[in-house]
């Protein structure tokens, strides 16, 4: 059951990313400095990016499950708060650090960190449903 919970949690986190970056795509593309074609769509992308992205979210979901099990986090409320903490206080500062040293606009870590925080909060809640 744990493997299924991790998979469903990763799907939820990835789906949030699809919505998040769908809404903020123009701002994110500009802040990330990604080249776009005449149609406004990013150039040089690969469908494999989605596969790799999902695998990254799957790794986060798996580690969250392990951390929650070791910490006794068992209710959806505890899961949401703990997931929020992971996103806001572990992942977002690291994203911000990378953006700062990469001399990226402040909007980039705000968008990426916002996604990490919201997705981890939801993932924490989903993970505790199993």
Protein topology:
Elements: H1 2-23, H2 25-32, H3 48-71, H4 76-101, H5 107-127
Question: Can you characterise this structure?
Answer:
This protein is mainly α and 130 residues long. The chain has one domain. Helix content is 78%, strand content 0%. α1 crosses α3, α1 runs antiparallel to α5 and α4 packs antiparallel against α5. The radius of gyration is 16 Å and the shape is globular. The N and C termini lie close together (8 Å). The mean pLDDT is 96.
Series of H and E elements: HHHHH
What level of helicity do the residues show?
Answer: over 70%
Most strands sheet: none
N/C terminus separation: 8 Å
Total strands? 0
Q: What low-confidence regions span 5 or more consecutive residues with pLDDT below 50?
A: none
Number of domains: 1
Shape: globular
Instruction: Assess the beta-strand content as a share of residues.
Output: under 5%
Helix vs. strand class: mainly alpha
What is the number of helical segments per DSSP (H or I, 4+ residues)? 5
In short:
The chain is an all-alpha fold and 130 residues long.
Features:
0% strand; mainly alpha; 130 residues
